[in-house]
Amino acid sequence: MSLVTTLARIEAAATGRARPVATARHRHLAERPLVLVPLTTAGEVGAPLGAMVGTDRDAPRLLVVPQPRDRTLRSAFLAELADAVLPHLEAAQDEVELVERSETDPETGRKAKVEVELCADAPQLVVPSAAGVAYVRLLGRSMRFRRTAEEDPRAAHPAPPRLPLLGRWLTHYGERARVPGSSLLLAVTEVLGRHWATGQSRLEDQHLGALLAWITAGEGESGAEAALRAELARDRDGLLLTPPAGPATDPAFDNRRLAPAVARYDAGLPGAEAEIRELVASQLRPTWDAVWQGLDLLRALPPGAHVADRWKRDRWSYTAHRDRVRGGEPPQPRRDDAVTAARKLAARETAQAELAAQEALDDPLVMAQRRMAGEAFEGEVVEVEMVYSSGKRPMPRPLVTVRTGDRPHLEGGERLHRALESGKSQPGVFTESPAPGLLTVRLTGGMGRGREPEAGSVPEAGETVCWTLFEHAPRGGPDLPDPEETPWTHGGPPDPDALDAPDPVTPEDLL
Amino acid sequence: MSHNSDSQPTTALRRRLAELRGADVAPRPMDARALAALAANPGCRRRALLDGAGVDKGALAQALGSPAPFGQSQFAFVRGHAFEARAKGDGGAELMRLVHSRTAAAGAPAPESGEVSVPDLSAPGPEGRAERTRQALERATADGGWTLLDHPMVRLEVAGSFVHLEPDAVAVHPDGRWTVVEIKSFPVLDGSADPAKVGAAARQAAVYALALKALGVPGGRVDDRALLVCPKDFSNLPTAEAVDLRRQIATTRRQLARLTRLEEIAAALPEGATFDPARPPAELAGSVESVPAAYAPQCLSTCELAFHCRGRARSGGAVEALGREVRGELGGLATVEAVLAAARGEACDTAERSPDHFPKEPAGDPAAAALRRAARLRAEALSAAGRP
Q1: Residues A304 and A213 in one domain
Q2: Cα of A372 to nearest chain B Cα, Å
Q3: Which run of H or of E encompasses A189?
């Protein structure tokens, strides 16, 4: 964490209000995201208790499993979830734009331009917290290897028709959420925490109610008091007024309310199922409303300039998964092979570097952190000296001197980068510091091909400029071999026919 | 051997701890989970004393008006017990098969059914059970067969007093090795489990391993690997992995040794201090305040008193309340007020500015100078974006 954001936390603690740590919104928000608030049964992995799902904040769809240990009821729940979620996830599949992409011809090895489809938009999924993202992954894992009656007529417990497909989509969204800066699947606590610093620790920020309390605390109450109420306040029956954002439930709710109701349901008492539905809804609704409140807060921020670029990558990711499903490929394997795993890791590292650069360029408050860290400097141009390179065709290599209070880590010869109006980045090289507080940079490109630099490509005296030591569009590492070329040191090529078998069904397991 | 008389808590100390707990309050036994959490925050004298004295911290927190929001759902409880019973079922045959497949010496034959002896360890009181456990371990090690100790009792000296601990199971190999078995109900999904939960289980197993090592039974040695038994994927079938404990054992041993001895902490208390939950809250708060705590937000998930300590830390403006990493970043500045004063440039010399407005390195604390720069950069950026 940077001292600039730490200071924001300190300010928040002193003033009792969350303080901004970003002045732009750094994640894409869809116009109609699908919000999913899942609840799980304590101690049971993959045994959902219920969910609230939908795109209309006033009309959530409530799904409830009255007895989470009952396999048939769980199956019915998941079928209903597929019914609620799949139409949304599949909605953007058919509206495409054609994009040119260069691909290497496998036979000639030459690069050629090909036209490929790119989905014009991608559906967004929003969950309350990081635990919710983990649960989406878990749900995806529990469903994608299931077999329907059509696929396996002899299965003892065939899955409802669209279940494996939902599993594959949720797995894809869960996997994509691990890519820094991606927005297909968002956790509200994470996104809010990216934009506001509260007067509590990051650990406590994982509580959605407490985090919102710091951001929205009303007049006459401090964020700390409001957050404490969200964390601990209970009604006369000992139930939390702000239930946990899930997927775990409050143990007091389980023991005092849910367990007796489930017992009544097991005993076949009339009205027991309706009672459980009401109970589960009472735990879900506050979180549902909190998620939408969080989205409102985020929508009020202007989107960062690079957010659309990153969303385009999410669209690529969505399109690629659509193509794999349509191509009849098997579900994602339980474990990635060596090359796939290395590719994913490299892609995430590149995405991380790109996100850090883009957020800084889009947001002066993020750039302030980089300046604080000595990775960028900003100042007023005091002198521009026109110099030309000494080649056959002399090219402009102007020397620009700025006055700055920043203290970048420069010794001489470092490559520097400056964002131009056009959005491109202009390279430069640090040459010297003629006096304390003055830094001279030689521009080495981005001025056109002529002898005279293009208009506006060289800053003028009095202009404020910002140079970074980091690249604006960091490249990834070297290419990796195809999976068929995996070296023996990494397990050798994967078996092309190896398919993950469905999970075995045992009498008391949870599938 | 650690149970010789001179390391027993002195009668005077025991009397003192009983006074602190309250005249008619039974001591609350400490478990390995609490011990592992204590070792995670060894600098906290408050927790060391309260746990050492057997104070019910939950009741104390309730009396102080900051009840801990802990609790276990009966669904999780039932499931945990069902899984443990299943894992240990059939006379421990399945469990010993897992012990053999994951931790046995190379080439050692698997235990045949009926070859595993499961001695009866029941006895009145924890001391009796600990003694039965010791005898059973001695016999099993001398016999050289497979033995499963179901819920044995071991004891460990913590900050000058003894704590009784109950591992889920201990397996004795024919070669005299003892393996701590931890049965947990979180799943191993596709060969991997939640690292935080595995870490907690390993710290807990390390506490048991230390207690077993302290027994000093001839011929017996404690395996540096524990067997972690968990449900496989989405099923109720047990699967197991060996977890290397060497680092956890070393860490726990060092941190337990660092725990300030209870005598010292108790001696520093004012006369008449008490933690009896029946006393008035103001008196309790005073007593609790007289023992220094080392609050960190991580305490919230492990210590019943954490909400009380957090309230105190916040009202005192302590920067620890914002996280350990925040504390580390701010150098010697320990309170919110001090940080803000430094950021405003009040604490040290005011920033001198040369004629060309380039700030010179101020003479004061480098942390304060960095804060001033951070504050300037932040204010600049916020005003550039038109935000307050």
Answers
A1: yes
A2: 6
A3: helix A188-195
- Residue A98: HSE in the Cβ half-sphere, 13 Å Cα cutoff: 3
Closest CA to A309 of A239, A263, A359: A359
The set of long-range contacts for A389-398, using a CB threshold of 8 Å and a minimum separation of 24, is A393/A451, A394/A451, A395/A447, A395/A451, A396/A443, A396/A447, A396/A451, A396/A452, A396/A453, A396/A458, A397/A442, A397/A443, A397/A444, A398/A442, A398/A443, A398/A447, A398/A453, A398/A458
Is residue B259 pLDDT above 70, yes or no? Answer: no
Q: What would the mean pLDDT of A109-138 be, rounded to a whole number? A: 92
Q: What angle do CA B281, B282, B283 make, to 5 degrees?
A: 90
The answer as to whether A93 is a domain residue is: yes
- Residue A368 is assigned to a structural domain of this protein: no
Q: Phi and psi of B118, rounded to 5°? A: -120, 90
Residues A222 and A107 in one domain: yes
CB contacts, 8 Å: B81 with chain A: none
Residue A500: inside a domain, yes or no?
yes
Concatenated DSSP letters for A203-268?
HHHTSHHHHHHHHH--TTS-HHHHHHHHHH-B-TTS-BSS---SSSPPHHHIIIIIHHHHHHHHTT
Write out the residue range of the structural domain in which residue A19 sits.
Answer: 3-330
Count other C-beta atoms under 10 Å from residue A361's C-beta.
Answer: 22
Give pLDDT tens digits for A44-101. Answer: 888 899 999 999 999 999 999 999 888 889 989 999 999 999 999 999 999 999 988 8
Alpha carbon of B306 to those of A239, A455, B274, B315, B363: distances in Å? 20, 63, 19, 14, 39
Q: Within a 10 A sphere around the Cβ of B7, how many other Cβ atoms?
A: 12
pTM, whole model, 2 decimals? Answer: 0.90
Grade residue A1 by pLDDT with cuts at 50, 70 and 90.
low
Residues A323 and A439 in one domain: no
Position B159 confidence tier, pLDDT thresholds 50, 70, 90: low
Instruction: Tell me what ipTM this predicted complex has.
Output: 0.86
Are β-strands B177-183 and B221-222 bridged in parallel, bridged antiparallel, or unpaired?
Answer: parallel
Chain A residues within an 8 Å CB radius of B70: 251
Domain locations in chain B as residue ranges: 5-71+261-322, 74-256, 330-384
Q: Are A137 and A171 in contact (CB under 8 A)?
A: yes
Nearest to A6 among B72, B185, B329 (CB): B329
Asked if residue A403 has pLDDT above 80, the reply is: yes
In a mutagenesis test of the A interface, which of B73, B327, B330 is the best target, namely the one with the most A β-carbons within 10 Å? Answer: B73
